[in-house]
C-alpha cells in the first residue's frame, strides 16, 4: 500500500488574509501560557512560603540568653535552589510564595517590619537574576553538574549575591538598629555565603534524587542508620571538653572521612545533607564555646566555623561534581545499553519473522515450482529419443537434489519440528541431518529438562545452530558435542568441539563477529549469560546458563 504524504507547511510561513486582523505574538504567548495548577502551588509554593516565614522568625528566637538562631539564612538560598530545579513556568509561583512568606514574617515582627520587608524583597530580586544567569550558562547538563557551572555558582551565588544582599541590608537598615540579625556587612555577607553554599546544592541534589530512582542505590535503611550514628558520634566528640593544643585541628578534620563516605554511599545528595548538618552543628557548638570552632572572642563567634565551612564546602562541591559526572555518564551508558538491547531484541524478532517468510516462500513457491518442473520432465522423458533419455534422467535427479537442498534450508530457517515436538526432538533431528550432510560428527545429549516456553526453545536452538556454524567455518573440528541439562536452578546448554581451540592469551584479541554477538544477545534475552572457554575435548566450549522460571506444564504444549 502506498501512502501519500500530506504537504508540509514551511515553518514560520503562514498564509495571510488581508481582511482578517492578526493578533500580536505577545497576545498569543499570553493566551497559551499554562496557568499553575494546584499541584505546582502545593509542591513549590507551600514549602517556600513556610521557609521564608521561618527565615524571618528564626533570627528573633532566643534559645539561650544572648544566642539567636541566625547561623544560616533560609529564604534566599531555598528560593534559588527551587528556581534551579523547577521549570520557568513555575517561577512565578515560587517568587509569589517567597514574597508572601516574607510579608507574613515581617508582619509578625511589627517593630522592624518595613526594614525586613525591604531587605528581603531586594534579596528576592537578586536571587531571581542570579538564577536566570546560572540557567542561561548551564548548557545541556543538569544544574551544578559541570565545573564551569560550579565556578559561576561560586562567583555569583556565593560571593556576588551575598555581598550585594548584605550591602542592600545595610542600606535599608542603617536607621533601624537591631532590625536585621547581623550587625555589620562582613557578618551578613559571610552568613549569606555559607547559607548559599550549603543549602542550594542540597536542594538541587535532593530534587535530582527524587526525579531519578537510579540514583537511590545507596539509600538503604542500614546506611541511613549508620550515617545518623556517625553524625551523633561526631556531635558527642565535639562536645567533649578537650584540652587546647594539637587536638583541635584533628577535631576539625574529623568530619572529612564522614563526608567522603557519604559522597561514596549516598552520592551528592547525601554528601550535601551531611555537610549541612556538620556545618550547622559546628557553628552552633562554636557559639556555645564547644568544639574545634569555639568562639575566640564575642565579636567573632562564627568566623572560625564559617571559614572552615567555606573551604570544606568548596572542595566537596567540586568532588561532588566529579562524582555526579561519573554517575551521569554511567546512567547514560546504562540507558544506551538498555535501548541497544531493546533494538537488538526487536531485530531478532524481525529476523525470525523474515526467516519464517523466506522458509514459507521456499517451501510453498520455489519447491512447488521445482516439483512441477520435475513432473513436466517425467512427461517429456518418454517423448525424446532413447539416446537423450539418460541426460533427461540426470537432469531430473539434479532437480530433485536441488529440491531437497531447498527443503533442508527451509527447515533450518524455520524449524517446524521445534514448534510441534519440542527442543529435544528438534536438536536430535538437526544433529542427524548435519551428520548425514557434512564431515563434522555431532553427538547430542539432552537430559530430562522441564518444558520451556516457545521463545526460550527457539533461542536455544538458534544458539546451537550458530555455534555449530562457527565450528564448521573456523574450528577445523571433527567432533562436536551438544548438551542440554539442568544444573541446580539453572538450565545449561554446552557446545564442545575438538578443533583448534581459543587463541593463545598473548595473541591479540579480535572483535566478536555477528554470530557471537547474536548468541550473546539471545542469552541475555533468556536472562542468562554466555561464556566461551576451552573445552575438555581440546577445542572451544560455548556455554549458556540461565535460571529456570515457572514454565508451562507438559499438557499445555499445543
UniProtKB/TrEMBL annotation:
SMART domains listed in its UniProt record: HATPase_c
GO terms, molecular function: ATP binding
Residues that span the membrane, as ranges: 67-85, 90-109, 115-135, 147-168, 188-207, 219-240, 246-266, 273-293, 305-322
Histidine kinase domain span: 460-550
Region (Disordered) residue spans: 1-34
A Pfam entry, by short name: HATPase_c
Keywords assigned by UniProt, alphabetized: ATP-binding, Kinase, Membrane, Nucleotide-binding, Transferase, Transmembrane, Transmembrane helix, Two-component regulatory system
Recorded superkingdom: Bacteria
Listed PANTHER family: NITRATE/NITRITE SENSOR PROTEIN NARX-RELATED, SIGNAL TRANSDUCTION HISTIDINE-PROTEIN KINASE_PHOSPHATASE UHPB
Descriptive protein name: ATP-binding protein
